[in-house]
Specification:
about 290 residues; 7-stranded mixed sheet; 4-stranded antiparallel sheet; 7 helices; disordered N terminus
């Protein structure tokens, strides 16, 4: 297929290994590929004690594969791991610190569908890894995200966090462990800061806002704004509002994920085609930032 020569081989530009993950695309087709760095990436998040690692998952169309993380390096350092103990709260278990997420023979079919979107998927996401899932349209990448974020339950098989079935956790506590950038995101008629926070502006969060925008390669554009992070976006409520381009809007959506990750101390960052609207230079900067940030 179009991925011949990439799958099951070492990719020097990425610093990791691509291999086929069976089960995506339904019927067991080998339509989706996983890439992960060699070694565990140390998490450098300044608000996380002991340098805890995160799992970052980027979902990219197959046409992007040749450019993935070009001219970047993957650290081989070990991430510090805090082995949390699950605590029972009501009828649910609180989510412990992450060691690994495991898909065990997972299949999923949407209601009324004639075939499964995912079939017998076995996959392990370990703390500190950076994973790229690459596949054709309809291979099941977005479905995989929905299962990972516990928006749906598998039709068969199970997904575990440190060996505990996700269904044992309260949905609120589990979803606080992850942030996501989806293909469909929204820019609100509010200030840049409020768009990043998806909430009212709070002065004590200003450093988090500016750091997140910088990490999303939006710093140069922000510097051109007369009111900085307080600049209103869109002209729905303000004649002085700024209408962002598609690529700029995508950077704000990415900054939103980075900021929420810092605020919630999330353990998993999921990005669904995060660079689809970016030019090549911005895409390179984003890839480099993801490697450094997660």
């Amino acid at each position: 297929n179009d991925l011949d020569g990439v799958a099951d081989g070492k990719v020097e530009d990425f610093g990791g290994v691509f291999h086929t993950v069976k089960g995506f695309g339904g019927g067991g087709e080998e339509g989706l590929h996983q890439a992960h760095g060699e070694g565990v990436i140390a998490q450098r998040h300044k608000l996380c004690a002991q340098g805890h690692g995160k799992v970052g998952v980027a979902f990219l169309h197959k046409d992007k594969i040749a450019d993935i993380h070009r001219a970047t390096e993957v650290s081989g350092g070990q991430a510090a791991v805090s082995k949390g103990i699950s605590a029972q709260v009501g009828d649910h278990i609180q989510v412990p610190d992450l060691d690994e997420i495991r898909f065990e023979n997972v299949s999923f079919a949407y209601d009324g569908a004639e075939s499964e979107s995912l079939t017998n998927v076995d996959l392990v996401l370990r703390r500190g890894e950076k994973i790229a899932i690459v596949g054709y349209n309809g291979a099941g990448k977005s479905t995989f995200i929905k299962l990972l974020l516990h928006l749906y339950n598998p039709t068969s098989g199970r997904i575990t966090w440190n060996g505990i079935n996700l269904q044992e956790f309260s949905k609120e506590s589990y979803r606080n462990t992850a942030v996501a950038v989806f293909q469909d995101y929204q820019i609100f008629a509010a200030s840049l800061a409020e768009n990043v926070l998806a909430d009212k502006y709070r002065e004590e969060l200003e450093d988090i806002i500016t750091d997140a925008l910088r990490d999303a390669a939006f710093a140069e554009r922000m510097a051109d704004m007369e009111n900085g992070i307080h600049t209103p976006l869109t002209r729905e409520f303000s004649e002085n509002g700024v209408n962002l381009s598609g690529g700029e809007s995508q950077k704000v959506a990415i900054a939103r994920a980075f900021a929420q990750s810092r605020i919630q101390n999330s353990e998993v960052i999921v990005m669904d085609e995060p660079s689809s609207a970016l030019d090549p230079m911005a895409e390179y900067e984003l890839n480099r930032t993801i490697l450094e940030y997660t």
